Amino acid sequence: AQSVTQLGSHVSVSEGALVLLRCNYSSSVPPYLFWYVQYPNQGLQLLLKYTSAATLVKGINGFEAEFKKSETSFHLTKPSAHMSDAAEYFCAVRMNQAGTALIFGKGTTLSVSS
Amino acid sequence: DVKVTQSSRYLVKRTGEKVFLECVQDMDHENMFWYRQDPGLGLRLIYFSYDVKMKEKGDIPEGYSVSREKKERFSLILESASTNQTSMYLCASSPIGGGKLFFGSGTQLSVL
Predict the structure, then answer these.
(1) Span B26-80, pLDDT tens digits
(2) Chain A, chain B: beta-carbon pairs less than 8 Å apart
(3) Those residues with Cβ within 8 angstroms of residue A29's Cβ, 6 or more apart along the chain or in another chain
(4) Hey, is B88 helix, strand or coil?
(5) Does A29 reach chain B within 8 Å, measured CB to CB?
């Protein structure tokens, strides 16, 4: 069965520092991988997705993620954190070849201090 | 923009009640989903549907059922609500072929 593991339930960084949120996946089908963000009291929105094209994927708000098959990882990064990046971040993998559902990780809460 | 609308933002019910959570999407998507979100557990898939009258169990279907009589509407039913079903419920939809999910704003259900 497909699964994702997000390492670290809470990550704290200073404004301007590098953001690194870790995600490892397990998939018996070619993985399609996603990062979603949930700002306080809002719904989930897609940050970026990997669907077997370029291994370095750029998303919204300056985030990017690199697919590394050898490490079964899809870590999310941003060179310089902003206060507005404080949110909960979820990594997800498609459930099956048809991609009819996503399996989500437990989430990582990012805190940004000034 | 795709709009996924959940009928209630907050709902308070008593144990044993039958509860209906409604979700409507306006983009003619084939796939619809119900997840529940709990602190520290992330999003867990309850049920999904890839066509009218079709449904598939997700990871935690126990205590829930669903109905999809029309393409745009996907209902989650708690047959006899229990306190451990207190949670945030998120509905989502996606076009055929899957990929990006579009989420509603969620329904915070409290079962007392």
Answers:
(1) 999 999 999 999 999 999 999 999 889 889 999 999 999 999 999 999 999 999 9
(2) 63
(3) A2, A94, A96, A97
(4) strand
(5) no
pLDDT, tens digit (0-9, with 9 covering 90-100), for A76-104:
999 999 999 999 999 999 877 666 789 99
Task: For residue A60, give the 3-state DSSP assignment.
Answer: helix
CA dihedral B1, A56, A110, A113 (to 10 degrees): -110
Q: Does A7 touch chain B (CB under 8 A)?
A: no
Q: What are phi and psi of B80, to 5 degrees?
A: -150, 95
Preferred mutation among B36, B41, B43 to probe A, highest tally of A CBs within 10 A: B43
The candidate with the shortest Cα–Cα distance to A53, out of A70, A36, A66, A35, is A66
Q: Which residues of chain A have pLDDT under 70?
A: 97-99
- Could you tell me the maximum CA-CA distance found in chain B, to the nearest angstrom? 39
Single-letter code of the amino acid located at A41: N
Tokens representing B82 are 């229990």
Neighboring chain B residues of A101 at a CB cutoff of 8 Å:
31, 33, 45, 48, 56, 58, 98
For residue B106, give the chain A residue with the closest CA. A43
